[in-house]
Amino acid sequence: MKRAKYLTVVFVGTLVYVVMSLCFGQNSLKCYSQMEEQKRIVSKQKAEIQSINTELTLELSALKNDKAVIAAYARKMDYVSDGEQLVKITGLKPYQNALYDTGSVVRHVEPSYVSEKLCKMCGLCAAMLVLLLMFIYDFKKGNISFAHKKDFVAGVPVYNVPQA
Questions:
Q1: Residue 153 phi/psi, 5° resolution?
Q2: pLDDT value at position 107?
Q3: What is the CA radius of gyration of the chain?
Q4: What value does the mean pLDDT of the chain take?
Q5: φ, ψ for residue 142 (rounded to 5)?
Q6: The pLDDT value given to residue 82
Q7: 146-153: which pairs have CB atoms within 8 A and are 24 or more residues apart?
């Protein structure tokens, strides 16, 4: 029966350690969900940047190859071609360069977790607590006592002498 008590103590300590590591440790389910959320944010940001890249690539190829697009951009920057006349109108805002949205910065955030050392200490404390409770239970039941027993049989001392 003593082995079962000690095995129970070891089992409880190990169980507490495993549960804490699984729920709150460095490789826990909580950290996994935090990392999945970061992955989702980064994937969304990547899709936005790829969309911007596609638009800019199309615009670049149009500026390199399409004469009508080149002429339109030149007119926006107040250039005129041969044979055109320039008319200045006062009171209008001057041309401003288009600013392209390049996305926002996404920083890596470390997931929050309980250290492995703390998980082990909690498991050890739980094991010691169960051992203490079993010790107190045995003491109350009388299985353990601290009184000094003297072996007397009806007033005659009994000595522990080896039998020959």
A1: -120, 110
A2: 84
A3: 41
A4: 83
A5: 95, 5
A6: 79
A7: none
